[in-house]
């Protein structure tokens, strides 16, 4: 890579709050007339230089985003075309024939990556219940990698990363945490003992449902180098416009998340008292099965994702989703607009989510407008009095 493509960036002070780091990290260094933002680098190749310079190697736009994500998570970041491209690359850190501990309940795309590697005879997988910390610790014996998703889809399970990391490291296993739901502003897995953090920046980091991008942040720079080489060789590179937009999204993550999280907490409280709801899954709610662990591992908040079971049939649940006028019935999460979906409609989630479980990604709309929409649609679908 031609290092002249990578201009120095502003320094972040060690004492800054992560919300300040999210605003400042990765900006071009200050000098008279310097731009506030990195440019969008639309070039597939570069004039011949001592080093090979080609679009798959990197550019200043990726580097700006990687600097910001690396500074936030306390490691070296490598960005990819999507969260799944990042996960695929991270799985390559396991030697052929190695063993990976994988939660049975996690995003089905990630579980699929490991299923295929097993089918191809490349890896062994030990499925675990991430809620059972002792079981995860026991499964780490003889494993090469422990993969955790925290906060996990769709039941919002919070993994006890400090305890799991200690046990995994005692057995020489790498610890990877998919921190997509928690974001770097609510959970910094490297500071809790993990080796690699994975983000689908498609979600809260991008924040506007208008891009796909993934990142791996590594404690150890040799892992970052291995992932960078993998990206070059396999081609799962981020788009240049997407990298620019993801960094722009990161700048406002703190305010978006603060608002969406406060709304999520309020909706979780109200939904748990609603006659049309039989169970709410949100670690920030006192009484939730994850509450105690979340207080330790996610002391700054549980983010803006929650799930709940509709107290009715699958048909009534589908009716409730169809009746919503503000919250959109769509997959994905982390955007400024609230999205909801019935996870069991996916074959990959049919065995891990109840048929009436709805996953809600809370956006930044007004809480009362969201509540009115949810309450009205639940009552209509379940024939409850208004
Ligand atoms: C927890 C989690 N990890 C990873 C991914 C995959 O990310 P992407 O869609 O950017 O490939 C998703 C996507 O929904 C996700 O929810």
Question: How would you describe what is shown here?
Answer:
The protein has 386 residues and is of the alpha/beta class. 36% of the residues lie in helices and 15% in strands. It has twelve helices and twelve strands. The strands form two sheets. The chain has a seven-stranded mixed beta sheet, with helices on both faces. Strands 8-9-12-11-10 form a five-stranded mixed beta sheet, with helices on one face. Strand 2, helix 4 (108-119) and strand 3 (123-128) form a beta-alpha-beta unit. Helix 9 runs parallel beside helix 12. The longest helix is centred in the last third of the chain and has 20 residues, at 253-272. The relative contact order is 0.12. The model has no long low-confidence stretch (mean pLDDT 96). Bound molecules: pyridoxal-5'-phosphate.
Summed up, what is this model?
Helix 1 (18-24) packs antiparallel against helix 2, helix 3 (83-91) runs parallel beside helix 4 and helix 11 packs across helix 12 (367-382). The chain has helices spanning 18-24, 60-73, 83-91, 108-119, 133-139, 161-170, 221-234, 240-251, 253-272, 291-297, 314-323, 367-382; strands at 76-80, 98-103, 123-128, 145-149, 174-178, 196-200, 214-218, 277-281, 305-310, 328-329, 339-342, 357-361. 36% of the residues lie in helices and 15% in strands.
How far from one another are the termini? 63 Å
Query: How does the overall form come out from the CA principal axes?
Result: globular
Structural class: alpha/beta
The biggest sheet amounts to: 7 strands, mixed
The fraction of residues assigned to DSSP E strands is 15-25%
Mean pLDDT: 96
Order of helices and strands: HHEHEHEHEHEEEHHHEHEHEEEH
Main-sheet strand order equals 1-7-6-5-4-2-3
Instruction: Enumerate the spans where pLDDT stays under 50 for 5 or more consecutive residues.
Output: none
